[in-house]
Every structure is written in structure tokens, then in C-alpha cells.
Design brief:
The protein is globular. It has five helices and six strands. It has a six-stranded antiparallel beta sheet. It is an alpha+beta fold and 171 residues long.
């Protein structure tokens, strides 16, 4: 039985699941959260620190990189050790003027450009104070995108369950 727990522990570690000291005896496993674990990637930790001036920031692994959230809004992504911020048409001129680059990736040998994500200015990568203006633009872009999208089906269903009227779309 102990060998099975040890093997399960190695499998869990490979999948990103960690043992907690208080539950090792039962063999229960849980996924770690950022406050519980040391962040292995120093660049991700640095980017979270830069964005944390606007609210609680967290990272989530995705597509070989990380998605960064501030107050539950997807506002940035990290790909190949580069921070990209969410940008819409209202914020794009400021990013272009600062010399930022849009996000590019290659899929099936074809290079693709995504205009919704732009690199953060080099000087903004130095401190949370310098990043604040750019992070606010990213959060504002994410909020405008959420408003344009309208309520999600799950939000509408949750509101109905609580007996509240369905959320309306802001214009």
C-alpha cells in the first residue's frame, strides 16, 4: 500500500499535484495554489508583482505559457519570457506609440498575429509603479471586452437561481 502511495505521489508531482503534510497519511492529493507553493518561474512571479498594484493577481498555465489575471479578469499572458497585455482599439495607439509589438505565434508552420495582445514597454517591466499605467489600460480593455461580450450563460443561470433578473448588456 505504501509503494502505491509513493508511486501515486510521483505521478501527482509530474501532473503538478502536490502532497500536503497534513494529508499524506490518507494519501489524498490536491492541486497547489500560488499562495501555497513557491513559484518556480521567476519571470512569472515578477510579472505578478508588476500587476498586483491593481488588485489580486494570479497566474494560470496555458498553451505553453501563462495567463495572468487581475481581479478575475484575463489581462496579460506570458509567452517565451515576454509579457503581453490585453489591448483593444481604444488603447492600441498608446502601445504603438511606446514601440510595443503585437503577439505572434506559429501554428502548423504558419505565423499568426493577434492584435488583442501587445508587449509591455521595456521601461514598464522595471517596477509596479512604472507598469501601473499600462496595467490599467489592460484592465480597461478586458472590462470593455467583457461588456461587449455580454453576460455569460453561467452568470445568467446563477442570477436566475438566486431569483435576480438577468444581467443586462451595457451600451
Amino acid at each position: 500500500a505504501q509503494l502505491a502511495l509513493v508511486l501515486r505521489g510521483f505521478e501527482a508531482e509530474a501532473e503538478g499535484i502536490a502532497h500536503r503534510p497534513d494529508c499524506q497519511s490518507t494519501g489524498r492529493l490536491r492541486r497547489p495554489t500560488l499562495p501555497d507553493m513557491a513559484i518556480a518561474d521567476a519571470f512569472v512571479a515578477h510579472c505578478l508583482e508588476l500587476l498586483s498594484a491593481l488588485g489580486p493577481a494570479r497566474a494560470r498555465r496555458m498553451f505553453g505559457g501563462h495567463g495572468l489575471y487581475v481581479d478575475q479578469r484575463f489581462v496579460a499572458l506570458i509567452s517565451n519570457d515576454m509579457l503581453y497585455l490585453k489591448v483593444d482599439a481604444a488603447a492600441r495607439p498608446m502601445f504603438e506609440a511606446a514601440g510595443c509589438r503585437h503577439f505572434r505565434y506559429t501554428s502548423a508552420g504558419v505565423s499568426r498575429t493577434v492584435l488583442a495582445w501587445w508587449s509591455a514597454p521595456e521601461d514598464a517591466m522595471e517596477s509596479p509603479v512604472q507598469m501601473l499605467t499600462w496595467a490599467r489600460l489592460a484592465v480597461a480593455s478586458a472590462l470593455r471586452a467583457a461588456i461587449a461580450q455580454g453576460p455569460t450563460p453561467s452568470a445568467t443561470l446563477q442570477a436566475a437561481r438566486r431569483g435576480r433578473p438577468k444581467a443586462c448588456r451595457l451600451t
